[in-house]
Amino acid sequence: MVRKGFSPYGPSKAALEAMSTIWAKELEGTGVTLNMLLPGGATQTGMVPATLPRDQLARLLKQEVMAPVAVYLASDEAAQVHGKRIVALEWNEEQKDKKGTIS
Known about the structure:
By secondary structure, the protein is mainly alpha-helical. The chain has a single domain (about 10-95), classed as NAD(P)-binding Rossmann-like Domain (Rossmann fold). The chain has helices at about 10-25, 55-60, 65-75; strands at about 35-40, 85. Strands 1-2 form a two-stranded parallel ribbon. The chain is flat.
């Protein structure tokens, strides 16, 4: 989020995280859950310049890194997961405790 040339992008992402933290606190107890899901690093998206060298492109995360966590968060098993900042690259099934929540 803090790379040269990304001044509109980085601060807007930081603001979104701060707002999401506040919203999660405001929504607590309503039955509406709010979590933040981040890929865990620079990701291959439409924002990546076409001129990026292949070796650098190969090091970028694939968008699919988000899928397992997104599916989990959309499941009934994650109904009690709320107010978490989840980094997809670091997430695995072992992070879930016996209640299915992310520790």
